[in-house]
Hints:
alpha+beta
Amino acid sequence: MGVFFNKDIYCEMKELIRHILREHVNEQRMRWTKELAHQEALKYNTKVDFKKNSPRAYSAAHTHKWIDDITTHMTPLGHLYKRMVYAYEFSDNSVYIGLTLNKGKRDQAHLDVNKISSPVAKHMIDTNLIPEYKVISDYVDAQDAQDLENCTIEKYKQEGWVILNSYKGGSLGACHRFWTKDMAQEEALKYNTKIEFKNGSKNAYQAAQKYGWLNDITKHMTPVDRTVWTYDKTKEFAKQFNSRAEMKYASISAYDRARTQGWLDEFFPNKFKNQFDKNKENV
């Protein structure tokens, strides 16, 4: 039996293969600009999906350091080394505390009253109550998150909550080592400058630096004056004021420079002292 050969089908298949190869070559040669990479990134909700479905755009964004700028719309996810701590609070004073690397998926599992695979869903059915979701911490190192979860369970226990978790928490005494963004924000409000914050609450300051909260929680602070106050610059600045007190109020750093260098008497002559010296000369 001979093999049937259709020239038209052969030509169509050949052209299709050529088209596929051309598309592949074009994709290989495509130069990703930041704008093109951003347009591509907008198709996805997470960095994981972006990397999986458009590896070349993702790679270009990483190489050129655009990745953070073009993925601001995406939902952050943890990984093997990052977790977030959360709680579901019920109005009957019951609470469930947990940690996860994917808030969205974990939320679906807890609230699925059909499968009832979570103590949260079970309590919803038993009480007909809807819990309030509360973020205890953003994504932090896995070990910190695990310790913070245990500490949070213990904290809720001491405040009289009924814990829905099936395992025992940790020691509240060890919780002073861990800082959530809210805790660090509350601590930062005690200080007027970053230097004061760093010196007065080193652990909170370091946690804010480590997890990228520092700029957000110090917006209320006065920027440090890094001006180099030379004699001429300080003298010119002092001309704006009628008294030393006014200058001090306007810039403590300029005032301290003039005071330590002995320029204040020149910038703000003591009228009473000058009059006394004149009277003394006339005697």
